[in-house]
């Protein structure tokens, strides 16, 4: 069994929404320790088997950029020093991110993966008195933490085009502690335009000024829609807006656990105090810092993903299956049958695809985008199992 | 400003805490310490954070590199299970009693989150490791930090008294920053008393346990396995030399561990740390060598202190706590000017006591020359001042 960024089932297992939510609240390690006897199941470690294509967890099939990989390996030489005592250190990484975003270092908080920050944001702003507004389906971690904290969770169904229902979410936001806004949204891959996002922010800030809006921009770097823009710059300027980003996606460092958050000073201070002080390992700091130095990497990787994604979408459309408009390194396809059946059929042909995403698990499957070669081979498998 | 494992925040409010954590920049000399451009003898010595100067060694590094070779750097589904199994095998601990964390920091935060409240506070020592009191302060939960006894040891009687009505007792053994250890008999009696006279949880932080050489020492892991009110925390940051990889572990009753797991975010550990830690556990000979090496360096450093007529605690760790008789700040600044970083202030001992982490033997030989110079200079300064005042 493998787990996604979002610490959820990737292959088989329970399709219960409650269980999936419980799982995300507890995180990966809990799962590891709780699911079955230890040591008996080698499948947990995703050693890529020869010929196996892993399209389960929205990872980068090429891994970190080569220079970052070198920096990670060199970082092992500093393994005995705290990440404040090395070069580059956590502060250098913060500075590099601030330079890149054009903000101050006081606008940045680092996390052991964006997951750590997602948890801290929920901890900071959600309570039994201050409910959470989120979407369904979307990334589940925030609602998992909210339920643990015994807070009400208002999960608003997506619209027919797989996008967040912004009007309904804004209505539900009155008196909320936190709104979780995944843009682009996982698992549908859909993105909201800048004008939609800003209108939503204005509405919420007018009708519920104390409510914090958390934009999870984990897939930001893969977006191709020209009407999209990140709200990171605005998060620095206005109170009660938090943006999370990650090195797990375009930078291919999911196993190194590096994420970051962007917000105005007071919000960052609050989260900084809740976050683990030294949460990023020395080689991870080194790898992330190096990954930011090469401006040519991102456009190349984005182009590669866009081409492989377009190929896959065209192929599925050609078979008569609709796919939501994806701006990420995965797609959400209406295969007209249970994802579980599709998943196990693909598995038999050496292709892993995404877990169930209730309430759409009876009709839709999430497929991560691998290399072009992998997608060409995977599409032949899709054709066969969907026939 | 430097930040120790035990980050320096004295947890007064969110603003202070955040400000302290955000000023991560150590002294500029840290960058120079790591600079490969300088010859080793010109690089500053880092004797301020109780790190292992040798690092994890080639066997562990090889396994960390293998994690990268396997592609785990880019994948989710981390190999935590293998690491847990290795610890379980090495210590004879059932896997359901084990839990990993991003350093022991994450584990201590989770424990404080679960077992303290606005009504049921934390009992700790002062000075001791600050993660638990920092977090309790942040959450607005009461903190009762008890003074050490005259031997700079955790005052077990006072702690047991204070445990009544508390939610959690934090007991660091050996204690950081004073390096002192309570032996097995004392700890057993203390735990018996807390368990029978209160209903508080007890966390025994054994971060430095591998370095202990007192023959009467005793780990509390066996008790943590059977008693749901006792937790033992350990780390790979010290004897295992992996502070930069961020991995620690705890032992508790299965019910306690599952309660902690419900809250703690499990996705904070990186793949090479997990496989490196597994390799380190499976190579106990290296840890034994490290303990022997540290023991010799510690004896050398203690002998120096004693030869100068200074008091020092009976160190059972990879650092020493020495009464230089000088303000820690003055000593520290003078050392930094001579390219050596030493420990921060530890109130209420900051006017006379200094924590010095142990480097290699060669590093300590170099350091002691500097300490001698510094003490001569500062002593001269203060006696001259004394003459003027007289």
Biggest pleated-sheet summary of chain A = 7 strands, mixed
Percent of residues in helices of chain A comes to 25-40%
Largest interface: A-B, 83 and 85 residues
Query: Which radius of gyration of chain B do the C-alpha atoms yield?
Result: 21 Å
Low-confidence stretches of chain A are: 1-48
Q: In what range is the share of β-strand residues of chain A?
A: 5-15%
Strand content of chain B: 5-15%
| Biggest sheet details of chain B | 7 strands, mixed
Oligomer: heterodimer
The first-to-last residue Cα distance of chain A is 26 Å
In DSSP terms (H or I, runs of 4 or more residues), the helix count of chain A works out at: 13
Elements of chain B, N to C (H/E): HHEHHEHEHEHEHEHEEHHHEEHEEH
Molecular shape of chain A: globular
SSE arrangement of chain A, N to C: HEHHEHEHEHEHEHEEHHHEEHEEH
**Tally of strands of chain B:** 12
The secondary-structure class of chain A comes to alpha/beta
Number of helices of chain B: 14
What can you see in these coordinates?
The complex is a heterodimer of chains A (387) and B (390). Chain A has 387 residues and is an alpha/beta fold. Chain A has helices spanning 17-34, 66-75, 90-101, 114-125, 141-148, 166-172, 194-207, 232-237, 265-274, 282-291, 297-318, 339-348, 372-386; strands at residues 53-55, 108-111, 132-136, 153-157, 178-182, 212-216, 241-246, 259-263, 322-323, 330-334, 351-353, 364-368. In chain A, 40% of the residues lie in helices and 14% in strands. In chain A, a hairpin with a 6-residue loop joins strand 9 and strand 10 (330-334). In chain A, helix 1 packs across helix 5 (141-148), helix 3 (90-101) runs parallel beside helix 10 (282-291) and helix 11 runs parallel beside helix 13. The radius of gyration of chain A is 20 Å and the shape is globular. Chain B is α/β, with parallel strands linked by helices. In chain B, the strands form 3 sheets. Chain B has a 7-stranded mixed sheet with strand order 2-8-7-6-5-3-4, with helices on both faces. A 3-stranded antiparallel sheet of chain B has the order 9-10-12. In chain B, helix 3 (57-69) packs antiparallel against helix 11, helix 5 (103-115) packs across helix 6 (131-139) and helix 7 packs parallel to helix 8 (184-197). The two termini of chain B are 36 Å apart. The interface between A and B is large, with 83 and 85 residues.
């Amino acid at each position: 069994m493998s787990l996604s960024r979002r610490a959820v089932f990737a292959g088989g297992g329970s399709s219960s929404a409650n269980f999936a939510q419980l799982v995300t609240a507890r995180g990966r390690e809990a799962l590891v320790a709780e699911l079955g006897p230890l040591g008996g199941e080698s499948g947990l470690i995703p050693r890529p088997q020869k010929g196996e294509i892993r399209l389960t967890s929205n990872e980068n099939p090429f891994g970190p950029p080569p220079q970052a990989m070198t920096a990670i390996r060199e970082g092992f030489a500093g393994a005995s020093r705290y990440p404040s005592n090395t070069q580059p250190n956590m502060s250098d990484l913060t500075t590099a991110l601030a330079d890149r975003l054009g903000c101050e270092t006081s606008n940045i908080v680092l996390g052991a993966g964006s997951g750590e920050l997602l948890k801290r944001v929920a901890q900071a702003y959600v309570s039994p008195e201050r409910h959470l507004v989120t979407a369904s389906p979307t990334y589940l971690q925030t609602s998992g933490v909210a339920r643990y904290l015994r807070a009400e969770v208002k999960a608003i169904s997506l619209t027919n085009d797989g996008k967040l229902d912004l009007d309904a979410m804004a209505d539900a936001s009155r008196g909320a502690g936190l709104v979780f806004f995944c843009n682009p949204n996982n698992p549908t891959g859909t993105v909201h335009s800048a004008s939609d996002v800003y209108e939503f922010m204005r509405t919420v800030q007018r009708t519920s000024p104390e409510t914090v809006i958390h934009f999870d921009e984990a897939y930001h770097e893969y977006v191709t829609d020209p009407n999209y823009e990140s709200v990171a710059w605005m998060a620095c300027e206005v109170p009660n807006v938090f943006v999370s980003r990650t090195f797990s996606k375009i930078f291919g460092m999911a196993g190194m656990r590096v994420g970051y958050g962007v917000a105005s000073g007071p919000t960052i201070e609050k989260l900084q105090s809740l976050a683990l002080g030294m949460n990023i390992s020395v080689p991870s700091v080194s790898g992330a810092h190096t990954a930011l130095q090469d401006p040519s990497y991102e456009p190349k990787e984005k182009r590669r993903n866009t081409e492989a994604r377009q190929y896959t979408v065209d192929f599925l459309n050609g078979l008569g299956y609709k796919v939501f408009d994806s701006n990420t390194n995965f797609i959400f396809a209406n295969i007209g049958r249970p994802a579980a059946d599709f998943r196990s059929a693909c598995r038999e042909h050496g292709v892993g695809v995404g877990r169930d995403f209730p309430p759409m698990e009876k009709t839709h499957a999430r497929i991560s985008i691998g290399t072009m070669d992998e997608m060409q081979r995977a599409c032949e498998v899709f054709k066969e199992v969907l026939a | 400003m430097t930040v120790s494992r035990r980050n320096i925040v004295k947890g007064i409010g969110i603003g202070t805490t955040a400000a302290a954590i955000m000023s991560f920049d150590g002294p500029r000399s840290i960058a120079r310490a790591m600079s490969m451009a300088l010859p080793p003898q010109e690089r500053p010595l880092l004797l301020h954070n109780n790190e292992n100067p040798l690092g994890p060694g080639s066997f562990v590094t090889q396994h960390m590199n293998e994690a990268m070779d396997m592609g785990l750097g880019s994948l989710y589904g981390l190999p935590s299970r293998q690491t847990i199994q290795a610890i379980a095998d090495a210590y004879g601990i059932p896997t359901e009693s084990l839990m990993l964390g991003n350093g022991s920091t994450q584990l201590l935060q989770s424990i404080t989150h679960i077992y303290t409240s606005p009504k049921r506070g934390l009992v700790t020592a002062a000075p001791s490791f600050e993660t638990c009191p920092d977090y309790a302060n942040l959450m607005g939960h009461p903190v009762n930090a008890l003074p050490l006894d005259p031997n700079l040891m955790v005052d077990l009687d006072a702690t047991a008294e204070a445990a009544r009505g508390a939610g959690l007792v934090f007991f660091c053994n050996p204690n950081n920053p004073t390096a002192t250890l309570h032996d097995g008999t004392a700890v057993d009696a203390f735990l018996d008393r807390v368990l029978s006279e209160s209903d508080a949880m007890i966390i025994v932080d054994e971060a430095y346990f591998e370095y202990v050489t007192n023959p009467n020492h005793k780990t509390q892991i066996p008790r943590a396995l059977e008693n749901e009110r006792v937790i033992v925390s350990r780390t790979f940051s010290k004897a295992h030399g992996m502070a930069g990889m961020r991995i620690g572990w705890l032992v508790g009753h299965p019910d306690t561990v599952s309660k902690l797991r419900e809250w703690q975010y499990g996705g904070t550990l990186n793949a090479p740390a997990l496989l490196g830690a597994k390799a380190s556990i499976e190579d106990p000979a290296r840890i034994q060598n490290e303990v022997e090496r540290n023991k010799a360096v510690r004896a050398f450093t203690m002998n120096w202190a004693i030869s100068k007529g200074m008091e020092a605690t009976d160190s059972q760790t990879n650092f020493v706590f020495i009464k230089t008789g000088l303000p820690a700040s003055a000593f520290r600044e003078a050392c930094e000017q001579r390219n050596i970083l030493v420990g921060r202030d530890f109130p209420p001992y900051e006017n006379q006591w200094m924590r010095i982490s142990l480097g290699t033997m060669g590093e300590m030989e170099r350091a002691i020359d500097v300490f001698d110079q510094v003490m001569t200079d500062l002593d001269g300064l203060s006696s001259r001042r004394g003459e003027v005042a007289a």
